[in-house]
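Sequence, please.
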């Protein structure tokens, strides 16, 4: 099954990459729903800046959209290798599962390194003709709010984590 995967990272107390997959037929509707949650004074949803009441409202929508989520835990690696380890494993998993689009939240401090790593990975895995990757800022791609919310909840633990656990297909400890 072809899918689009949206990725965000969490660097607090370890290093996690959260990948949320949606089938292409659900993208337009999901984008419209998430855009509808953005308040007049916001450019985007940034989960850690929201009130608990808003978080619950956003999570209701995330659960309704129901992305399939994989969490990559690179915490065991040296700090400078965590992101690379997660992205290499993520791309390998995506290549094996016929994902057609990977969208990462753009972080200018690692953008060039990401491009080099991703280019090498898709070539080495032979998926350069089938897997497209893009970096977008969160305000440009509303579906980046999905892994952002899920990652925050997973990291926070307690009832927040329980709320998103049904969406998490696997946790890959690297």
């Amino acid at each position: 099954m072809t899918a689009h995967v949206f990725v965000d990272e969490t660097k607090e107390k370890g290093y996690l990459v959260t990948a949320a997959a949606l089938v292409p037929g659900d993208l337009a509707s999901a984008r419209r729903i998430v855009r509808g949650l953005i308040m007049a004074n916001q450019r985007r949803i940034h989960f850690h800046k929201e009130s608990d009441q808003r978080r619950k409202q956003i999570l209701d929508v995330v659960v309704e959209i129901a992305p399939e989520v994989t969490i990559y835990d690179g915490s065991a690696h040296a700090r400078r290798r965590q992101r690379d380890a997660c992205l290499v494993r993520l791309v390998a998993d995506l290549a094996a599962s016929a994902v057609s689009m990977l969208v990462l939240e753009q972080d200018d401090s690692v953008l060039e390194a990401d491009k080099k790593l991703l280019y090498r990975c898709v070539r080495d895995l032979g998926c350069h003709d089938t897997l497209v990757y893009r970096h977008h800022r969160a305000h440009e791609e509303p579906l980046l709010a999905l892994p952002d919310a899920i990652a925050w909840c997973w990291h926070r633990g307690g009832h927040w984590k329980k709320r998103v656990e049904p969406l998490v297909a696997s946790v890959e400890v690297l």
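The chain has a mean pLDDT of 95.
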